[in-house]
Amino acid sequence: MLTLKCNINNWFQDVSIETVQSIMAQLPAYDEIITYGSSMGGYAAMYFAQAVGARVCIALSPQFSIEPAVVPFEMRWAGDAARIHFTHQRLSEVIGHGGTTYYVLFDPHTLDGQHVDMMMEISNRVMPIPIPHSGHPSGVVLQEAGLLASTFDNLVRGKIPDLREPLRKNRRQSASYLSALAQRCIDKRRMQTAEGLLAAACKIGNRADIQLSYSRVLLKNLKPQEAHDALEEAWPKLGHDAHLIAYRAHLQHLTGDIDGAFKSFDDAIRKQPDLLAFYQGERAMFGQVVRDFQNEKRLRDAALARAKAELELHHGQTGSFSRPVMIATFSISLVILLILAGVAITFRLV
């Protein structure tokens, strides 16, 4: 078995066809050669298939390219595409001829479908196998449903299996399937259905990425406390990039954890200090805290005025409060103002 693995997401641009052919020349001759890969690996399986003399290529959710000039619709890996120096030939120049049969498994409801359309335009050797609601990459759903090995066996023998009925029977045991189906519901604004599907997916898979999606849907459904709890459950398993930390700060603010929210915003700013949105979010939250305090003070003052008026009404004289009550009220207000001033200084807002 010859394995190509990337340490970074560069779509194997540092590996040429000539390099792969030179490696193959040092290996024993094989009667049967098959290439296989998923997502970026699916692209590589297709790109190098003829170089290694493969009879069959099995590609799960591959890309035609991620080069912006070639696939302007593809934004999922825009950050990677921006830093990659593309050296490969276009896939159209590689798979448009030769004897390899390319079996391409994909979810037609994702952008993967557009990549497959481009592949089919340049080669009649591309055999599309759509797997609706399998998400990206499609192989995870097949694995969870117990269908991956049998699917591969069939494709190697040249038989395209009908996966619709087996998937339908086993879909409740696949968290990825339920998650992808939920995404379709989100696209159609069926948020309550999406929430139910993601809740079921979380119970099956206990996967951080699905729990994060569940949290976001709960927030859209105006359930901030449940959204916060779902995020916190997944938090130890998530990669803590600055945007995710800012999302956590937003949920902490909504659920009343002001100290935690300020700390999270400060963490996000330290991770990505050049992003103005984090400063703006922190300032907006501080402004809301101040407004809440001012509103609370107005309500308290109004309550005191009303109580004073009632005293005057019942006793026929100007109402007054005991000295200890007035001192306590003043002290509480002063302490709150000092706390807010301290927070403002800490976060450089005044």
Architecture blueprint of SSEs:
Layout: H1 17-24, E1 34-38, H2 40-47, E2 56-60, H3 78-83, H4 91-95, E3 101-106, H5 112-122, E4 126-130, H6 139-144, H7 148-156, H8 164-170, H9 175-187, H10 191-205, H11 208-220, H12 224-234, H13 242-254, H14 258-271, H15 276-315, H16 323-346
Parallel strand pairs: 1-2, 2-3, 3-4
Task: Describe this entry's structure for a reader.
- The structure is a single chain.
- Helix content is 58%, strand content 6%.
- The protein has 350 residues and is of the alpha/beta class.
- It has 3 domains: 17-165, 3-Layer(aba) Sandwich (Rossmann fold), CATH 3.40.50.1820; 174-237, Tetratricopeptide repeat domain (Serine Threonine Protein Phosphatase 5, Tetratricopeptide repeat); 239-350, no CATH class.
Q: What is this structure, in a nutshell?
A:
The chain has 16 helices and four strands.
List keywords for this structure.
350 residues; alpha/beta; Rossmann fold; Serine Threonine Protein Phosphatase 5, Tetratricopeptide repeat; 16 helices; 4 strands; 58% helix
Query: What does the largest sheet look like?
Result: 4 strands, parallel
Q: Report the radius of gyration as a whole number of Å.
A: 30 Å
Q: How does the overall form come out from the CA principal axes? A: elongated
Classified by CATH, the class of the largest domain is: Alpha Beta
Just name the CATH architecture of the largest domain. Answer: 3-Layer(aba) Sandwich
Q: Could you name the CATH homologous superfamily of the largest domain?
A: Alpha/Beta hydrolase fold, catalytic domain
What class, by secondary structure content? alpha/beta
